[in-house]
Amino acid sequence: MNLINLDIRMLRSLMSVVETGSITETARRLGRTQPAITLQLQRLEKLTGKAIFIHEGRRLFLTAEGETVLSYARSILGFHDELLSQLTLPDIDGHVVLGTPDLYAAFMLPSILKIFRKAFPRVQLELNCSLSTPLVGCVKRGEVDIALVTRMNDFTGGQVVRQEQLIWMTGEQSSRCSRIIAATIETPSSCWIVKCTSGNCSEITSKNVCGFVT
Fold first, then answer.
1. Phi, psi (deg, nearest 5) at residue 35
2. How many whole angstroms separate alpha carbon 164 and alpha carbon 142?
3. Three-state DSSP class for residue 60
4. Is 214 a domain residue?
């Protein structure tokens, strides 16, 4: 059986060209010359016996075979880089207390903790589930090492790791007034001030006429 050995550098060049759409940018990123990158891609096509790119002017497009090669290249490079990372990591052990609300613990943390446990198998992780405000207090008192919380207006410090858009929802049977209010709040160009609140649509309408709601 004829075994073909694919150079990791060729696969990395392939991925970079696809990501950037440019041999010039790939050469800059990888610290190589443009002819060297072009030669690597040509060598990859020769070894696989398949056309990987279609040239249309100055642009490159993957062929069907190229898509297959790219898919495997991503997996190979992922395992390659993970192996080197594992071999170079120091032996870290200890005990870490992580605080987070129940919602995050159920829906966000499982995949993150799986990666963490794989990277740091000797670190014992303790999970403390509570509301965001109490958890911030726990961090300040040293009872929790690190916390993933929902940021409140009075919170200071910390680092924002994710932002989500606020969405207003009304049911199909909700009053027309509720839908108008939600739509108005959603409109970025609207400048609005709430001077009163009421669960009664007609009361809000009458107060709007009298100038209490703007």
1. -60, -35
2. 29
3. strand
4. no
Residue 23 identity: I
Q: Rounded to whole angstroms, how far apart are CA atoms 14 and 52? A: 9
Does 192 have pLDDT greater than 90?
no
The residue range of the domain holding 36 is 8-88
Overall residue count recorded for the chain in this entry: 214
Could you report the per-residue pLDDT of 5-63, keeping only the tens digit for each?
Answer: 889 999 999 999 999 888 999 999 899 999 999 999 999 999 999 999 988 877 888 99
How far is Cα 3 from Cα 142, in angstroms, rounded to an integer? 57
pTM of the model: 0.45
Say if residue 20 is in the same domain as residue 60. Answer: yes
Q: Are 63 and 120 members of one domain?
A: no
Total structural domains within the chain: 2
Which is higher by pLDDT, 94 or 175? 94
Check if the beta carbon of residue 128 is closer than 8 Å to that of residue 138: yes
Beta pairing partners, 126: 97
> Is the pLDDT confidence value at 194 over 50?
no
Last residue of a domain, one of 88, 107, 131: 88
Number of other residues whose CB lies within 10 A of the CB of residue 41: 19
Kindly state whether residue 119 falls inside one of the protein's structural domains. Answer: yes
Output 114 or 52, whichever has higher pLDDT. 52
